[in-house]
Amino acid sequence: MADAIGKKSEADAYRELLGNIKRAFAEKYLKPDGSLVVDTQTAYALSLFVDLIPADLRVKSGKILADKLSKGETADNSGMTTGFIGTRPLLPVLSSVGEHDLAVRHFQSRKFPSWGYEVEQGATTIWERWNSFTKDKGFGGEQNASMNSFSHYSFGAVCEWMFNTLAGIDTDGVGYQHVVIKPSPASSGSNPSREPINWVKAHYDSIQGRITSEWKRGADRFELETTIPANTVATVYVPARSAAVVTEGGKPLAEVPGVIILRQESDRVVLSVPSGKYRFASRLAP
Questions:
Q1: Which of 245, 267, 273 is nearest to 185 (CA)?
Q2: What's the count of helices (H) and strands (E) in the chain, helices before strands?
Q3: Can you tell me the distance from the alpha carbon of 263 to that of 248, in angstroms, rounded to the nearest whole number?
Q4: Does residue 158 contact residue 91 with C-beta atoms inside 8 Å?
Q5: How many Cβ atoms are within 10 Å of 83's Cβ, its own excluded?
Q6: What pLDDT, in 10s, does the model give residues 10-46?
Q7: Strand blocks (E) in the chain
């Protein structure tokens, strides 16, 4: 913020303070193998989320967190013990350290209750308790609605991850002038308990206009429909091993006006596209 409003000396002071905090944290709480003195799921989630773990240890710390979650999993328990403070950063952290499949699996777990039921009861937000209001009993059901939040932090906090990571809607800079569309499906077969999430339909009403991301993954095909508002450009990441297997509206990318192939990043083709509506499809590796 200090940089943004031209306060250079204050910005330099805050950067120096941040460096001092990171060094002090590492000296007191961080071990050379990436483990923490405070050995809890929340400690790892928070430390990784606020960037207190050095870059060369992030994956190791993330693996320790992932192992803690996996070891606690049972048929009726997700293995999560993060509580309020650690729940919000958990899924973004897992996705950022190469554990995205685990993030999706835990998103589908019993720890995050049946939001679909709330929607059926007329909900437009995420509630603290799923049955504080029901169509048949109103507010007079089993739960005491007077102490129930109908727009609640504990489960609603993960919505940021749902939009930014799962649907892949983000901004590169201020005001959504440059949009990022980077959908993140889970790997096929990554959830032993149920079919991993294989479709997402989302939109965000930005200051520039509505941004949409609707994707579907099949056994060997990925489809993405996206809308980029007027007066903006977007960087779009399409899961594919090569631009040669990606089409837009059924045409090869080279034949689509305005679409520029920027690069290949691991298993994604990165494109630059102007405002408009697009329907991308790609052939996935078996």
A1: 267
A2: 8, 9
A3: 17
A4: yes
A5: 11
A6: 999 999 999 999 999 999 999 999 999 999 999 999 9
A7: 169-171, 178-181, 199-206, 209-217, 221-239, 246-248, 251-252, 260-265, 268-283
31-52 as b/e: b if 16+ CB within 10 A? eeebbbeeeebbbbbbbbbeeb
Residue 57's SS3 state is helix
Alpha-carbon distance of 32 to 90, in angstroms, equals 22
CA angle 259, 264, 269 (to 5 degrees): 50
- How is residue 252 written in tokens? 């090869």
For residue 126, the model assigns a pLDDT of 78
Q: Summarize pLDDT for 233-256 with one digit per residue, the tens.
A: 999 999 999 999 999 999 999 999
Angle between helices 41-49 and 8-29 (to 10 degrees): 150
Average pLDDT of the residues in 140-162: 76
| Type and span of the H or E element at 26 | helix 8-29
Tokens found for residue 54: 């050095």
So what's the pLDDT on residue 113? 52
Tokens representing 268 are 């994604």
Please give the Cα distance from 258 to 267 (Å, whole number).
Answer: 23
